[in-house]
Design brief:
382 residues; mainly alpha; binds 2-acetamido-2-deoxy-beta-D-glucopyranose
Length: 382
Amino acid sequence: MSSMGLPLLLLLLAPPLWPFSLPPPDTPEGKATITGLILSVLEKATSFLKKRLPEINLDGVVGFRVLEAHLRGVQEEWAQDPQLQPLSLRMGTLQRKLAPLLHRSIVYLKLSDPEYLREFQPTTQPGFWKLPHVWTHINASMVYPTLEPQDSFSEEQSDMCLVQLLGTRTDGSQPCRLSDFCRTLMTKLGCSGYCLSHQLLFFLIARMKGCTRGLFHQSQRYMNLFCAKMMDLNRRAEAIGYAYPTRDIFMENIMFCGIGGFSDFYQLQWLEAILSWQKPQEGCFGRPDAEDEKLPKDIHHQQHYRIREKRREKQFADGCSSHNTATAVAALGGFLYALVQYPLANGELRQATPVPPTATDMNGSTPAIHQEDKTQAFGPSF
Ligand SMILES: *[C@@H]1O[C@H](CO)[C@@H](O)[C@H](O)[C@H]1NC(C)=O
Ligand SMILES: *[C@@H]1O[C@H](CO)[C@@H](O)[C@H](O)[C@H]1NC(C)=O
């Protein structure tokens, strides 16, 4: 309860983003209200998926698959509680709607992008994404400085390393393999944006595949490092009013670090923001209409969120984005799962920011970049 104090306080101080404020999740009624709101958004997003099925890309399928995993996890938790049955039934309905849609979507991908699908097929399968059973916290003193430029990290290289890890190359390779090149790429410090989220994704997928040897012996250590940085970046995104180009990576960070078990990413005011981004007409997430687009207060910030041309990104004419929608539903699914588990028996599922925002944050201007060079202390020697 007391741990909810900070975000609620921030909520009161912040300008309203949404016609209503979410109730605190510490009563059954509050939980039910928030769950109902999230479900409404997810139901609409699923209708969008259904309407645009042939156009949804692989990232889109993965996002909805992660949502499916969360829905299943929530239902397992709620099966026993008769009070929550109506919501549980609604989740079951959504889950049963999703499964055949995703199956059909994969059939479309097989036709449109067979090579890419084959390489990433495991991540699109039911049961691949496993939810955290233990929650952990960000250690804010692990935040390392961003190094520019980051053009040594390309989506092609990152994909190649993921394929190696998944063991889906055509040469009959085994999962959990790692070249020196990929080890260096996936453990170098200094990344931000998608370079960073893909580094975390690499270790997440290794966890899903059960890779534990060699470098993967240290998976948790790298996940701690990367998610500390991702938390810092998300707080900066919040500080600049979630300018549109930052929203996609903001939600991707919640999606990945949430599955990684970092409960700090499930902050009430972030949930409120994400819920407000759905396009009411289409049910998708994507480029906001011009009038509600907030300009970043500080152009310097954008450097942290440079959105690369995402090779497989699908931007529809109406501003809907397959990738944006995928990260949104996956993140929202995580909020459902965190909410259901709140509060954990040991009271560990905090929704407070691990580090109180500095006064500068409160002013909404640029928080100082952490200058201490932590690279020496944590960096692999290369
Ligand atoms: C956080 O990280 C710092 C720097 O590595 C370390 O000294 C400290 O013990 C860590 N704190 C926790 C709670 O793990
Ligand atoms: C907040 O902004 C005001 C006006 O720019 C400034 O005077 C004040 O020092 C800032 N507060 C802090 C604590 O940085």
